[in-house]
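Quick sanity check, MHC class I antigen:
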Amino acid sequence: MRSVVLLLLGAQLAYAGTHSLKYFYTGVSRGIDFPEFTAVGMVDDGQFMYFDSNSMKAVPKTEWIRQNEGAAYWDRQTQGLIGTHQTFKNNIQIAMERFNQSKGVHTFQEMYGCEWDDQTGTTNGFRQEGYDGEDFLSLDLKEERWISSVQQGFPTVQKWNNDRANLEGRKHYFSTVCIEWLKKYLEYGKSSLQKTVSPQVSLLQKDPSSPVTCHATGFYPSGVTITWMKNGQDHHEDVDLGELLPNEDGTFQKTSTIRVTPDEWKKNEFSCVVEHQGKTVTETEDKIRTNNGESVSIGIIVGALAAVVLLIIIAVAGYVVYKKKQGFKPVSASDDGSNSSART
């Protein structure tokens, strides 16, 4: 009888490691049923604030920020983001002119923030901007210069690289101010941010000849790896790794799907290996779930291993937009400091 081994690996590393403060901004030209501008703030990949141009109001999304920051904080956030909304409208117009576009739906995107390793003290800052889902500008903090991979971004790069005072100000923000806010938010939310929830893991299959999906859900923090093994060896062929997605309760989910023929599946032992920072958890799965009621027996082996915590770029459904060919794509942004500037 064929068997599928499901491994769930964990470690006792509840709160240590790299923490992040990220902001995601998305500006959209008129023409679709979506706010012209949205902003999402995230700590350790969990959303804590939100703003859009329909409501024109920054609002808390966690209890810990609601309890620790009052009206003055939210007024300041709101006023700053109202200004950024106007800047993004201008940015889209300028970008359209540079790309020789007169119509159509377009997006302007920005992601910025900082990271702090609470064990080594190492810090890092980042800011990236995109237009219509493609790279437009990025800030190299080590070299203290802006970079663009497209000629339409060169005028902005030249202007901003000549403004040394602005570059020094941004370096100070990312290395000092942003880190201070990150530590403050971590202290605010330590009771919830320190929590570790291990994933629930299922093997899902539409029918016996369909691909098998390893689905991990309900875990926190977001760092997780899902890999496959074939007869005890790492297996990377015909594997599709899904995006990290948020659940409504603040936890996360992720999938990995393997495509093999029924004959190959029957003759070999395939394993889904899920690694997550947290406690060792014992699962009791004993079947591959199918849509037609059929099932395949599987064995479960639960182990303990120091998990490698990965930093994952997350997509927040409904708040962020990525434009890919005919579709849309997302953007990232920041806190009290690194506001966008119009391109001229």
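Posting the structure with no commentary besides this: The chain has a mean pLDDT of 78.
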